[in-house]
Amino acid sequence: MTDGTTAGGPAVGDTPGGGPAAEPAAVSAVAGGDPAAGRLAAAGQAAAGGPAAAGSREGDTTARRGRVCFTSRVRPDRLGEYRAAHAAVWPEMLEALRDTGWRDYHLYLRDDGLLVGVLETDDYDAAQAGMAATEVNARWQAEMGGFFVDDGNPDEGFVILDEVFHLEAQLAAAGLPVSPGATR
After folding, report:
1. According to the model, what pLDDT value does residue 73 have?
2. C-alpha closest to that of 29 among 181, 176, 169, 158
3. 76: number of Cβ within 10 Å
4. pLDDT digits (tens, 9 = 90+) for 135-160
5. Whole-number Å distance between alpha carbons of 75 and 91
6. Residue of 9, 56, 147, 180 with fewest CB within 10 Å of its CB?
7. Using CA atoms, how far apart are residues 101 and 26, in angstroms rounded to an integer?
8. Does the annotation count 166 as an active-site position?
9. 83, 86, 98, 103: which is the annotated catalytic residue?
10. Packing angle between helix 135-144 and helix 79-87, nearest 10 degrees?
11. Considering the domain boundaries, does residue 151 fall inside one?
């Protein structure tokens, strides 16, 4: 998808003390393939009481893990077709996504064509590379290419977003219960 800078933080479920966390506290960023734009949202971790992410500088090869959020643009005149295609994704594509490390993957589409994707993965770059190596992904990207505003494989044009707030992480860092009605 992207070939910009990678960044990483704690593994899903890790905290600075090594104990479990409610959710990952940061998401890495690569904006439009611009390596200079690749930065980890250290503010989200700092606000949550976690460490600023190691490896958020250009040239770092630390794996991005945890929750990843991205945007792209679908052509407004093709929204119906795009929705229909995603209502019946090929079974072999679903298996390839699962087998290459994509978990809890969701796509959201706004009426003006803004597409937002959210997924969890142990290693985003490895998950992308795994998909790129599959024959089914090449076929899927060829089928989907005409739906997107930008030319090229759609999965190579995603803009990865920084996480700037995570409620459960901040509640936990403040020593507050994460669930309603729970005691400290």
Report:
1. 97
2. 158
3. 12
4. 999 999 999 999 999 988 899 989 99
5. 25
6. 180
7. 18
8. no
9. 86
10. 150
11. yes
* Domain-embedded: residue 17: no
Report H helices in 48-117: 79-87, 91-99
Q: 8, 28 in Cβ contact below 8 A?
A: yes
- pLDDT value for 184: 63
- Main-chain phi, psi angles of 142, to 5 degrees: -65, -40
Residue ranges, the chain, pLDDT below 50: 1-62
Asked if the structure places residue 149 within a domain, the reply is yes
Give the domain range for residue 142: 64-163
Residue whose tokens read 């933080």:
9
CATH code of residue 153: 3.30.70.100
- Could you report how far apart the first and last alpha carbons of the chain are, in Å? 42
Report angle CA 162, 34, 163 to the nearest 5 degrees. 0
Strands of the 114-121 sheet, one edge to the other: 103-109, 114-121, 66-73, 159-160
Q: How far is CA 184 from CA 14, 22, 28, 106, 171, in A?
A: 20, 14, 31, 33, 11
